[in-house]
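Q: Convert this sequence to structure tokens.
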Amino acid sequence: MTDEERTAKDLRDLALSIRAPRSVSSALDRAAAHAAGHPTSRFAQRPRLALAAAGFVAVATLVASLLVVTAPASASDLLARAERAAMNGSTSFNTYRGTTKGENWLGADGKRLTVPTSYEQKIQFSSPNNVRIDTTATDPSGATGRQQLFFDGNAAWIFVPDAKVAQPIDPRMVLSQSPFAPSTLAGAIESLSQAFNAKQLSDDVVLGRPAHVLELTPKDPAQSGPMAKITTWLDTQTLLQLGADVRDAQGELLMTWRFVALELNVNIAASEFTFTPSADVRIGQVLPPGATAGMRMELWRQLAAQSGFQIFRPFCGIDGLDEGMPARDQRGVIVLPFAANGSPIVMMQQGPRDAFPALSGENVTIGDFIAIYRVADEVEHLDFERSGTHVHIQAPQPLGRDPLYHLAVSLVPVAKS
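A:
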């Protein structure tokens, strides 16, 4: 396997482990509100906002199911097991079909609403990452909308049945999403122990299934916004999240959801996950304009808040390549791919110095810092330090040095707030 093929494989593997924070849904809420004056179809503004608030849903936390476990010794042990399960996938089931119901009181401006948005999600999942989610949401005014998400492992679509409008989306937007974005644990489950203290409460039962109950409180309340406490129910057999409540400092609910139906290892036809637009379906904009950019910025902020080192995002990209979504790998390193036609070409990594091997090469001056440039097996590598953070960029040699240099000098620090 060449370095380029290895890089592509690493990125694909990473994509399967990414979880997005609650703030991703908040970005969609804000983007939807900002775009409200420019509806793209007869699927009215309020149902669109309701659906955005109900969550642009996907698969990742749904498969945080995962390993059969014995009774944990402590809350932190249970949380660590749940994190490992979320990262490593499931041995407990290959498919499931379920329904969740939830309410969200958190408005697009971050303030608590008097009347919540409510929603129902019908979910079908098949290993390794096929998913279909049908969402019906009702906003505080009573306006209702429907939205469907399809992902067959290759192509991803969002479809609005009432408007007959469909939008193909980057599969990474599916793989990087949390299924209950507005009402889940308000953070990537594999990063919860970094941001929250855990306390185990008395076990409970959800849908007849025994569940461990964890109460999570932010380690740094200044970084958690209105959230003051999260209660989550984890299936004792699979560690699948069966529900969650998020409360503010006054104890008022901000978000809540529960599974109301769940079947494991059921037969689901492959055709359920595939979407083919019919002749009367218009290909158009379903997600609000700017939603992807907003999601990316929220991810950067969340990663910065959870990292023990300064992280940097590029101000400029690489011509001809699409900037992906940042994510944390199992080493704790922040990874950012740049792709062409969906295939990763350039990868930037950043983290503590000891996360990277010792290296040698040509010393080059880029702006006001010194970097090490080298070529190995027709792959370019550029390494340098910024404010105690080690940055590594690699790309196929034909790309040339200049794009790597431009990317390096464009990096700007991401604030932790």
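Residues 291-306 form the longest helix (16 residues).
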